[in-house]
UniProtKB/TrEMBL annotation:
Converts 2-succinyl-6-hydroxy-2,4-cyclohexadiene-1-carboxylate (SHCHC) to 2-succinylbenzoate (OSB). Keywords: Lyase, Magnesium, Menaquinone biosynthesis, Metal-binding. The lineage of its organism: Bacteria, Bacillati, Actinomycetota, Actinomycetes, Micrococcales. Mg(2+) binds at residues 140, 166, 194. Pathway: Quinol/quinone metabolism; 1,4-dihydroxy-2-naphthoate biosynthesis; 1,4-dihydroxy-2-naphthoate from chorismate: step 4/7; Quinol/quinone metabolism; menaquinone biosynthesis. This is o-succinylbenzoate synthase. Its cofactor is a divalent metal cation. Residues 91-185 form the Mandelate racemase/muconate lactonizing enzyme C-terminal domain. NCBIfam families: PRK02901.1. It comes from the Bacteria. The gene is menC.
Amino acid sequence: MSIELPPLAEVLANSHVVRLPMRVKFRGITQREALLIKGPAGWGEFSAFVEYAPAEASRWLAAGIEAAYESFPEPLRATIPVNATLPAVAASEVGSVLEKYDAPHTIKIKVAEKGQSLQDDLARVAEARRLYPQAALRVDANMGWDIAQAVHALKALSDYDLQYAEQPVPGITGLAQVREQLRNAGITLKIAADEAVRKHTDPLEVSRLGAADLMVIKAQPLGGIAAVLDIAQQAELDVVISSALDSSVGLAQAAALASALPELPYACGLSTGTLFADDVCSEPLLATAGYLPVRRINPDSDKLKQLRPEQQRVDWWLHRVEQCYEQLANA
Ligand SMILES: O=C(O)CCC(=O)C1=CC=C[C@@H](O)[C@@H]1C(=O)O
Ligand SMILES: [Mg+2]
């Protein structure tokens, strides 16, 4: 990592575990756990998804430590354009989920959810298009299709005028194949890489191979602001900064990252605070008319108490910090 590691005992002593209830199921979860670190520069977040092993999760810890111990970069803009995120809900729920966002100009819609059909996706996207005729719509399949399914589904979904389709299939070459087959069929829908960037040993390979039109990049999974600014600078593709379903503390870091990028051609996926029923401060980082402010977040001490899970989960997270710290120390 780009900064020197603070002592482990200091990180552990300044850690606070929270569990945030969600308004709507997203990524299969209805409660989001996070460990927040208070440091000399402010608060940082470590909230690698619970199923991630230490090798992957340690990058998230590096990001949390960076936010707690380093100043945020000089912002080039005070607010960040953001998209509303629509989980894979039934078409009948699209209106009630989206009305929680203040006047969204861009909406990212989850598709290809396990157990659902293309008809479900088409109905969800059609309803979003009906309710928000002027909005830019994009879809995210989280690798849920194979190549033939992706080409078939995206041909049908492109009737709704999509801005881009994020990670329709697994892998890097898979993205390139879907893109090419769509182009051969006369469909110029842009393809975005997400998992092919953040879960790959070399986040720049997608760009080098020209396998996609743009890259989704996330502060925590890729190791923090400095690491992502470096990736973005080397990438030859446009980048979209997106959240890792962080609390307001992690979103503040991601917004600071987005504020430091010289170019921001697409709305960022940083409106996910709206998916939470509660957050770590009384004034969470939420968008107004599709723009998120760039500011540090200091959790409220009463919120930290209220949202603290049972001791067993606190211990689990502290142990995870130890494991990930060891990875970083030996890197
Ligand atoms: O980009 C957005 O609109 C919101 C963030 C988002 O979709 C995600 C956050 C965290 C985990 C991921 O599964 C998911 C994504 O795939 O982009
Ligand atoms: Mg994605």
